[in-house]
Amino acid sequence: MTNTGANRPGAAPIVAAVRREFPADPEAFRAAITPGTVEAVAEVDVTGLELPAGVHVQRLTIRHVVHGGPESSVIVWGDRTYRACPRCNEPVAVEVVDCPAFKNPNDGQVWSTSHQHGCGGWLEVAWGELGGDASEAEIMAMVVEVAEWRAERIGEEKVRIRKRLLRELAEAMDAPDLDDALTGSEVQPGVFMADNGHPAAWDYHPTDEDATLIVDPDDVAKWRKEQAAGHAD
Ligand SMILES: [Zn+2]
Fold this sequence. Notes:
Blueprint: H1 11-21, H2 26-32, H3 35-42, E1 55-63, E2 70-78, E3 101-103, E4 110-112, E5 127-131, H4 136-174, H5 178-181, E6 190-193, E7 199-204, E8 212-215, H6 217-228
Antiparallel strand pairs: 1-2, 2-5, 3-4, 6-7, 7-8
Helix pairs in contact: 1-3, 4-6
The chain binds zinc ion.
């Protein structure tokens, strides 16, 4: 994720925000343009945003230890795109409930929280930071960026799993005794004998626990043809 940095509010967006708040009342509009109210009016209510599945937004607000004023940043983050720790392979939660960053009151900077797994491996979380005055459009642009990044990564992971399943099933089909080569069952991922009497290989979807990926001998035949033609690895 790119970090867009924390820009302090400029006069124009604040005035625009206050005008939206008090469109027909010039008195209230003028009264609202004070340093105390400007920040509150200009801030987007991030809890009211409509977000795609797997993406979260939170506003972090601190009281700066040097200038004493409130200062906020908006953090956009995505759920994980994998279900197991890349290092120890133990299952991990796909959903990242807690904000993966915090704002340091000493310098106002936003830092990543620790995403270290018990084994010492790092559980990657994609997140981005926007200034506290970010508009709804700016926030939603980053939401879309994170959602697209996730979709891409999940797609890549599905391709990787499918290739592994094709290799596993091909290996089992080539074994002298297929029964000995079965590595899974209907409830255990791996190669198993399907109801139709043919072997198949399956594993879980990278993020959706209710979905599975499965390949059968037809898929292996197609894959082998592609390999022979040099189109697959
Ligand atoms: Zn681990």
